[in-house]
Each structure stands twice: as structure tokens, then as C-alpha cells.
Design brief:
This protein is an alpha+beta fold. It folds into three domains: 103 residues, Immunoglobulins (Immunoglobulin-like, Sandwich), CATH 2.60.40; 88 residues, Immunoglobulin-like; 185 residues, Glucose Permease (Domain IIA) (Distorted Sandwich). 16% of the residues lie in helices and 41% in strands. It has four helices and 32 strands. The strands form eight sheets. Strands 20, 23, 25, 26, 27, 29, 31 and 32 form an eight-stranded antiparallel beta sheet that branches. Strands 2-8-7-4-5 form a five-stranded mixed beta sheet, with no helix packed on it. Helix 2 crosses helix 3. It is elongated, with a radius of gyration of 31 Å. The termini are far apart. The protein binds zinc ion (ZN).
């Protein structure tokens, strides 16, 4: 009997020991950002996990000099193995400069005689409440409605995001080798000069944002309008090209309206994404080339009305310039750059997009043949393919666009050496030479 008693006691000790040592690991914690400048404007994110016995409590204290400010605490009754939370520093009256963030977390382990395992981590961070200072270097930002401009400026510190905001459209600025920033922006064709109020913005890594207006002058422009009659032959021709996009379309006209409306919108959205695939510095040199000996068939921002059997059925804006010479004409790259798209693209048919840097890109649509590949570097004037009538086109021509960060602008300016010198070249030299 005595032996059994000893065995039972030993067994209890082993079970107790296993339970006692079951969770000897302290909670694991991660803070982000854990090293950079922070402010009260952006929350910090804390991740905690304790797979052993679950979290019991979290406490976060900001310490600067002699002062300690509690900024966040939480306790857990039920089993919480993982917690991701955000907290701000808005209640801690910190001064700009270094401070410590001390994070303490305990778990439900009975280890340490029931006190649990404790994780303590100290992060040394910089408190930064000051917005970056912007200084505009370039002057005379003159824009035509639908046209482009360049602004050159400096920022007093490293930033997360900077550029020009026009309405809700953001044109990113790019840091140049000189240390200056350069940003292409536009007065969108559909915005009247009176509504146009571009703002230069910069947001630092701590989330402090500066917004400032700057000198500019905007000129109104009138855009052409035109009528397009949709005949049965044209609508039937489009069917094999587009029926896979909208198999639900019951008639050739319904298919056309979906392509001209929905697919057009989708393609315009895609231009925003291509606009982000850009070099930070200029890849182009000098004036942009226009397809030689080509007649100007359709203008930029032309309001087009579409008629079917005498009735108006649709309205769209034409965002490029249509150029036509001979059929299957060789198409030159308007300037040096890198190919970001060389494939089908909805209404544009076979389409090439060349990045010239800083969000500036050129687009060539309705091609019959493409001679370049995505990722390839092209020289100014190099043949990139041949004109055609692919996509939403009735006859052989080139649809040409100049695009700034995904927004189509008037290409005519970019063909004009005087405009380019005054509005781009001279300003850009401010960001190159210093
Ligand atoms: Zn066109």
C-alpha cells in the first residue's frame, strides 16, 4: 500500500510538473513602425501572440526624459492566443525628438508562481510633429485646358508621398539626382480653368502632411465635336473581336455600346496602373515625334456622338489623336523609353505603351503588328510596329496618346519644340543642374 502511495505522489508530481512547465515561453510581440519617425497622426501597429497559454495583459508606455505617459493597455479574460491592435500617440504630450516606447505583455501561464511569463520590449523612436517644408523652384506654370505642366521643388526631409493633387487626381513627383523633385501634372480636359486649383503635397514618414498652392495660370480651350454613324457592316465587323468580352449582348448594337462604354472605362483605368510602371528620371530627349506624313483624322478630347438609324445612341470623349497615312504604315516610337505594354488592350486593339519616365508615357493603338516586347528599351524613331484597324477601329490608322500618370493629355504640345523648351526642358534643367 505504501508503494502505491509513493507512486501516486510521483505521478501527481509529474503531471503537476508538466502542467507547471507547459508554457514557459513569454508572449511574442512585434511593433511597426519599430525604428522610424512617428507622430500622433499615424497609428502604430502591435502584434502579440502566445500560443502556449494565451495573452493576459498588454501595457504600452511612452517615456521621454523623466516623464512616462501610458498610451495603451488591454487585459484579456478568455483565451486570446493572437491579438493585432493599433494605438495612437495623441494622448502623450511628447516633444519632437527621441523617446522610448516600452511594451509589456504577460500570459496566462502559471509559471513564475502564477504571475505568468512577461515579455518586455523597448523601442527607441523619433517623435516628429512637423510637416515637411516645400519650396517651389520653377516659375510660370502655364497650362492649357487638357494640357501639361512641370513643377520643380525641394522638400526639407524624406517623404513617403509627394506630388500634385488636381481635384481627386494625384500626380506623383519624382526625386531627381540633384535632390530636387520634379512632377508632371495636367489641367484635365473636362475641368474648367476656374475649377482648377492644383496643390503641391508632401507627406513625411511620420504622417505629417503639407499642402500648398503655387503660382499657375490656366487657359481655356475648346475641343472639337463630331458625329459618327454606326452602320450594320461596322457593327457586324466588331462582333468577332469583342463578343468574348460580353457574351450576354443580344445584338451587335448592344455589344458596341458595352465595348464603347464599359470596356473603354476599364481600359482607361488600366492606364492608371501602367502610369505607376515608370522610371523616376527622364528617359526621353527633346521633342516628341509625330507619325510622318500622316493626316490628322480626329482630335484630342473630341466629343463624339454616335448615331444608329438616325438616333443618337452614345456619347464618348476621344482621348487621343488619330493619324492616318498609308495602310500598314511603320510606326515610330515618339521618343526614347521602355516598353511597358505590347499586347492587346481592349478598345485599343494591338497596343504599345512606352514609358518615358516620371509618369510620362505614349500609347499607340489599333496596330496590325507589334515589333517590340514588354521591358524592351526603344530609341526615338525606332519602328515599334505597323498601323492597322484592330480593336474599336473601322479603318487603318494610328490612335496616339500622351499620358501623365494615367491621365491622357493633349499630345500636340509634346510635338511643339517651343512649348517643350519653355514648359519642360528649361524647368527640368533646374532639377538636373544645381
Ligand atoms: Zn482614336
Amino acid at each position: 500500500m505504501k508503494k502505491i502511495g509513493i507512486l501516486l505522489l510521483l505521478g501527481a508530481l509529474i503531471v503537476g510538473g508538466v502542467f507547471y512547465f507547459r508554457d514557459t515561453e513569454e508572449p511574442r510581440l512585434t511593433l511597426s513602425p519599430g525604428t522610424e519617425a512617428v507622430s500622433a497622426k499615424r497609428p502604430l501597429r502591435l502584434q502579440l501572440e502566445d500560443p502556449g497559454s494565451g495573452l493576459n495583459s498588454i501595457k504600452v508606455v511612452a517615456v521621454q526624459g523623466e516623464k512616462a505617459f501610458p498610451v495603451f493597455s488591454e487585459t484579456f479574460g478568455s483565451e486570446t492566443l493572437f491579438r493585432e491592435t493599433e494605438f495612437g500617440l495623441q494622448d502623450a504630450p511628447l516633444k519632437d525628438g527621441p523617446f522610448e516606447l516600452r511594451v509589456t505583455a504577460t500570459d496566462h501561464s502559471i509559471y513564475h508562481f502564477g504571475a505568468g511569463n512577461t515579455a518586455e520590449e523597448t523601442y527607441i523612436l523619433q517623435f516628429d510633429s512637423r510637416a515637411p517644408i516645400l519650396s517651389v523652384v520653377s516659375s510660370a506654370h502655364n497650362l492649357n485646358q487638357g494640357g501639361s505642366a512641370l513643377i520643380v521643388y525641394t522638400i526639407s526631409e524624406e517623404v513617403d508621398r509627394t506630388g500634385v493633387m488636381v481635384g481627386d487626381f494625384f500626380f506623383p513627383g519624382y526625386l531627381q539626382e540633384s535632390g530636387n523633385y520634379a512632377c508632371f501634372f495636367a489641367l484635365p480636359y473636362h475641368m474648367s480653368p476656374k475649377q482648377f486649383a492644383p496643390e503641391l503635397i508632401a507627406e513625411d514618414r511620420a504622417g505629417n502632411q503639407r499642402r500648398t498652392d503655387f503660382y499657375h495660370h490656366a487657359n481655356p480651350r475648346n475641343f472639337p465635336s463630331g458625329k459618327i454613324n454606326l452602320d450594320e457592316r461596322f457593327l457586324k465587323m466588331l462582333q468577332p473581336r469583342f463578343e468574348a468580352f460580353f457574351p450576354e449582348a443580344a445584338t451587335p448594337l448592344e455589344l458596341f455600346l458595352k465595348v464603347n462604354g464599359e470596356l473603354r472605362k476599364e481600359n482607361v483605368r488600366a492606364l492608371r496602373d501602367f502610369g505607376k510602371q515608370t522610371a523616376s528620371g527622364p528617359l526621353w530627349q527633346g521633342v516628341f515625334l509625330r507619325q510622318p506624313n500622316a493626316a490628322h483624322l480626329g482630335g484630342f478630347a473630341a466629343a463624339r456622338s454616335y448615331f444608329y438609324e438616325g438616333k443618337k445612341v452614345d456619347e464618348q470623349t476621344h482621348m487621343g489623336v488619330d493619324l492616318a497615312s498609308i495602310a500598314l504604315a511603320p510606326i515610330p516610337a515618339a521618343n526614347a523609353g521602355k516598353v511597358v505594354h505590347a499586347d492587346d488592350l481592349g478598345i485599343y486593339g494591338k497596343c504599345v505603351i512606352i514609358d518615358h519616365g516620371m509618369g510620362l508615357q505614349s500609347l499607340y493603338g489599333h496596330l496590325s503588328r507589334i515589333d517590340v516586347e514588354k521591358g524592351e528599351t526603344v530609341a526615338k524613331g525606332q519602328t515599334i510596329g505597323n498601323s492597322g484597324a484592330t480593336g474599336l477601329a473601322g479603318g487603318d490608322h494610328l490612335h496616339f496618346e500622351i499620358i501623365l500618370s494615367g491621365l491622357s493629355v493633349n499630345p500636340v504640345e509634346w510635338w511643339d519644340p517651343a512649348w517643350l523648351k519653355n514648359n519642360v526642358g528649361d524647368k527640368l534643367s533646374l532639377s538636373v543642374a544645381k
